[in-house]
Specification:
Strand order of the largest sheet: 1-2-3-4-5-6-8-7
Distance between the termini: 27 Å
Radius of gyration: 15 Å
Number of helices: 7
Number of strands: 8
Structural class: alpha+beta
């Protein structure tokens, strides 16, 4: 499986990606803004990557490496977690700090949203972000997801309860744009 956009390739992770994934994800700012733990070690990455093949084969999740076409560099992760019974998918992603501000998360999210709606025939796509993670909220809006509400104190993050904001879109929303 491989998805492509103008500047990016989204492909399954390889064992050889573990070191770079850990290097990028082991960033306090990524941990502060996402659900990625900190510290994040190569062992974490290896264990996580080892679960991917089965998830992709079963169609329950598509955790894909975001690769910059020009340089071939791993820049982050774009995941679509699928609930086949209810025909919906959850977007989850992070981009390494050296690549922030380039629009890679939005480009990769549009690419995987197209895959979810067109190939997997999902009815709904959704995502959530910590209430203070404005860049992630902008990514979801750029794909066409609309703000659906706040889940107050939904998660315990870094020792404190935090709100998350839910975004979503249904197939009809996408077709009307």
């Amino acid at each position: 499986m491989k998805l492509e956009s103008a500047r990016l390739t989204l492909r399954p992770y390889r064992e050889t990606d573990a070191e770079r994934a850990a290097e990028l994800a082991n960033d306090k700012e990524i941990a502060r803004r996402t659900f990625v733990p900190h510290p994040y070690t190569v062992e974490h990455a290896e264990t996580w990557i080892a679960t991917h093949e089965e998830a992709i084969e079963e169609g329950t999740a598509y955790p894909l490496a975001i690769i910059e076409k020009e340089s071939g560099e791993l820049t982050g992760t774009m995941t679509l977690r699928v609930n086949r019974k209810h025909k919906n998918g959850e977007l989850a992603y992070w981009v390494g700090r050296p690549f922030w501000g380039r629009g890679y998360a939005s480009e990769a999210a549009r690419c995987i949203a197209d895959f979810g709606f067109d190939e997997l025939e999902l009815e709904r796509m959704w995502g959530r972000a910590l209430a203070d993670n404005i860049p992630s909220q902008k990514v979801m809006k750029s794909v066409g997801l609309c703000y659906e509400g706040a889940l107050r104190h939904e998660i315990l993050h870094d020792g404190e309860f935090k709100d998350t904001y839910m975004y979503g879109m249904i197939r009809a929303d996408r077709l009307s744009k």
